[in-house]
Amino acid sequence: MTQFPNARVSIPASVMVREVGGESVILNVESGRYFGLNPMGARMVAVLSASESIEAAHDALLREYDVDSGRLQRDLDNLLQQLLEHGLVEVSGE
């Protein structure tokens, strides 16, 4: 997703995010596909879905956490790729 910094991430209406036993789970109720998220992954999804762009989400997370910018971008890209493969998020404005 690095190549699409202005793209926006959204959670489709058929997807729910819930906390279960200290872990967040993102579930597509139509397909039954789900993905477990640790606290950092859950925060990334929350910020990505609330931000105007992937780049804005990256910048917000960078201000929030003491992490290398390149490492954060790789982690965001990896998480987004996995969520897209499972049909749990949508990316628009690529």
Write structural notes for this entry:
By secondary structure, this protein is an alpha+beta fold. It has one domain: Alpha-Beta Complex (Outer Surface Protein A, domain 3). The chain has 3 helices and 5 strands. Strand 2 and strand 3 form a beta hairpin. The N and C termini lie close together (9 Å). The model has no long low-confidence stretch (mean pLDDT 91).
Q: What is the CATH topology classification name?
A: Outer Surface Protein A, domain 3
Radius of gyration from the CA trace? 13 Å
Average pLDDT taken over every residue: 91
- Annotated CATH architecture: Alpha-Beta Complex
Low-pLDDT runs of 5+ residues are none
Shape assignment: globular
Largest sheet: 3 strands, antiparallel
Count of alpha and pi helical runs: 3
Assess the beta-strand content as a share of residues. Answer: 15-25%
CATH class: Alpha Beta
| Structural class estimated from helices and strands | alpha+beta
Order of helices and strands: EEEEHHHE
Instruction: Report strand order across the widest sheet.
Output: 2-3-4
- Percent helix, as a range, is 40-55%
* Total number of distinct structural domains: 1
Number of strands: 5
